[in-house]
């Protein structure tokens, strides 16, 4: 064999494949480059390749051949010479791998790479590219050994070795442990395996690659549910035979995302159970990703699909509020009303609300008993009063005015404005506990501080958005133009996309004319779920998003809870109860 041989007929008149190869491309129209390497053995470290053989085929026709010996720059082990017949003298005039790679990478461009036991060959090629500064094109890879394990039964072939498969499919070239011969043998094996795929309803390159992986029979049987879905952003709904929604999801590319449920990458047990019950997939196309995320939340809230774990019951939130009457106390409630004096939330669980309440009890002298107190009648004090943990309003040891100043006002101010007094009190308590080496108790107080700050930051952010009657915003679309959103009182009221090269104003006007009417209400989330408003906030706060119009100024308190975000991050990530000194 010559040191290097390269032959490729003219491809004029043939349709070129797109870079990366569309997974929906039929197998008969797919260009394959079947490759085989001979090496010195060992692990792929950027060298060690002694020979490359590659054959380019499409539709059963050979389009080109690349074959070359490669000088590895190291001695050839004797057992390799015995196995392959490649000697040191044969490799001395051969080019090194860094000179071969440019021709090879050009040869495999826009094609599916095929190899027998592909991880071995691909590993050596990727390592060589990395070592010598070439970009690996990351082509789609089809492993004939893995495909044979899925297609052929043990009764047909005793093993999946290349020689066994070449004999079974009566390959014109038998493998000889030389790269080009083994590549030609792999071509015939590939064609034989493709002939067997029709019975498995596998007719595209994407299906073939996934079929070679460990896909369950249910996934294979139900993969047709992904047919005909749109490629744009939106929501997809898996439905049962009786049309019940089983699972709701969202994606920037509905078709690609739904197809992923039928691949080997999907291993979740609950999704496998869902696929077994699913009979069809419904797609709801959306203008852009924000609208898709919001519609997903609303559909999950409306239908509570059994296989969705998150966002199923948005109404199950709780609030921490001050009770009515003299000497108010904190109470965990399901709803708030316009008459409530002060409140904090919403919390996703009662435990989170109680943790924040414990933080306030550590910081300010709010009573913890559940008695209904009277300004006239004295009630016996509890143990907390004896321990100095309560000012004993039950025994009238503190006036209502002083109780309001010392306990009620700090809570109300922390929720809507400046939580500095509460933060200072908790930090002082943490420092005192740490100084006495009571680290577990200090860690408990640290958790309470984090719960207070987290809830206050969240509520103030939500309240700032929901207080605006209308916000119009724009985000650059991936393909040009603008993604537009109209938000009213924290709820997405309208969405659209203005095309590239066209002023977005007419599109925004049309969106406003057809947008949902949203009435103001009470609380930080009067018109939407907290999750919806938070998704909108995340979208609005992206650096690329532009605020086009607002009904009023969008602002948060200057001395609000948001200025303690760094402290909150520390509290949430601290692995040690030894805390911080800064209090700003």
From TrEMBL:
This is DNA polymerase III subunit epsilon. CDD domains: DEDDh, GIY-YIG_UvrC_Cho. Gene3D superfamilies: GIY-YIG endonuclease, Ribonuclease H-like superfamily/Ribonuclease H. Coiled coil: none annotated. The lineage of its organism: Bacteria, Bacillati, Actinomycetota, Actinomycetes, Micromonosporales. Residues 231-309 form the GIY-YIG domain. InterPro entries: DnaQ (IPR006054), GIY-YIG_endonuc (IPR000305), GIY-YIG_endonuc_sf (IPR035901), GIY-YIG_UvrC_Cho (IPR047296), Ribonucl_H (IPR013520), RNaseH-like_sf (IPR012337), RNaseH_sf (IPR036397), UvrABC_protein_C (IPR050066). It comes from the Bacteria. Pfam families: GIY-YIG, RNase_T. NCBIfam families: dnaq (TIGR00573), PRK07883.1-2 (NF005904), PRK07883.1-3 (NF005905), PRK07883.1-5 (NF005907). PROSITE patterns: GIY_YIG.
């Amino acid at each position: 064999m010559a040191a290097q041989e390269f032959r490729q007929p003219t491809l004029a008149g043939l349709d070129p494949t797109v870079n990366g190869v569309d997974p929906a491309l039929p197998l008969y129209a797919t260009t394959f480059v079947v490759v085989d390497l001979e090496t010195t053995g060992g692990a792929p470290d950027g060298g060690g390749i002694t020979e490359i053989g590659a054959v380019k085929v499409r539709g059963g026709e050979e389009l080109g051949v690349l074959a070359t010996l490669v000088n590895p720059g190291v001695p050839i082990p004797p057992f390799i010479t015995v196995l392959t017949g490649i000697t040191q003298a044969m490799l001395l005039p051969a080019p090194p791998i860094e000179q071969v790679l440019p021709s090879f990478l050009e040869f495999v461009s826009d094609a599916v790479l095929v190899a027998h036991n592909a991880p071995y060959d691909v590993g050596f090629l990727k390592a060589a590219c990395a070592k010598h500064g070439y970009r690996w094109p990351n082509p789609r890879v089809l492993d004939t050994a893995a495909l044979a394990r899925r297609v052929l039964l043990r009764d047909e072939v005793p093993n999946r070795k290349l020689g066994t498969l070449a004999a079974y499919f009566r390959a014109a070239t038998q493998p000889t442990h030389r790269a080009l011969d083994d590549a030609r043998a792999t071509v015939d094996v590939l064609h034989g395996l493709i002939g067997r795929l029709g019975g498995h309803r596998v007719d595209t390159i994407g299906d073939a690659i996934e079929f070679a992986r460990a896909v369950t029979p249910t996934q294979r049987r139900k993969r047709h549910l992904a047919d005909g879905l749109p490629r744009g952003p939106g929501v997809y709904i898996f439905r049962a035979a009786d049309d019940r929604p089983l699972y709701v999801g969202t994606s920037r590319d509905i078709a690609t995302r739904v197809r992923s449920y039928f691949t080997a990458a999907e291993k979740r047990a609950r999704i496998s159970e869902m696929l077994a019950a699913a009979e069809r997939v419904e797609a709801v196309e959306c203008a852009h990703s924000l609208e898709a995320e919001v519609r997903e939340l609303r559909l999950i809230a409306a239908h509570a699909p059994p296989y969705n774990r998150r966002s199923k019951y948005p109404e199950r939130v709780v609030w921490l509020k001050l009770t009515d009457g003299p000497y108010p106390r904190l109470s965990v409630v399901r709803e708030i009303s316009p008459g409530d004096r002060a409140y904090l939330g919403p919390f996703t669980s009662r435990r989170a609300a109680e943790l924040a309440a414990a933080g306030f009890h550590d910081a300010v002298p709010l009573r913890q008993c559940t008695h209904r107190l009277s300004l006239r009648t004295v009630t016996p004090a509890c143990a907390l009063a004896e321990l100095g943990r309560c000012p004993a309003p039950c025994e009238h040891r503190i006036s209502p005015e002083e109780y309001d100043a010392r306990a009620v006002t700090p809570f109300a101010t922390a929720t809507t404005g400046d939580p500095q007094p509460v933060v200072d009190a908790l930090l002082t308590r943490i420092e005192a506990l740490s100084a006495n080496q009571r680290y577990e108790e200090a860690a408990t107080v640290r958790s309470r501080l984090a719960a207070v700050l987290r809830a206050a930051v969240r509520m103030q952010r939500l309240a700032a958005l929901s207080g605006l009657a209308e916000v119009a915003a724009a985000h650059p679309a991936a393909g040009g133009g603008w993604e537009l959103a109209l938000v009213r009182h924290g709820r997405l009221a309208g969405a659209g996309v203005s095309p590239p090269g066209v002023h977005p104003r007419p599109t925004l006007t049309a969106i406003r004319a057809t947008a949902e009417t949203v009435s103001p209400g009470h609380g930080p989330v009067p018109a939407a779920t907290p999750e919806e408003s938070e998704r909108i906030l995340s979208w609005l706060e992206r650096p690329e998003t532009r605020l086009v119009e607002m009904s009023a100024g969008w602002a948060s308190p200057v001395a609000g809870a948001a200025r303690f975000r760094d402290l909150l991050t520390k509290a949430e990530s601290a692995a040690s109860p030894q805390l911080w000194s800064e209090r700003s």
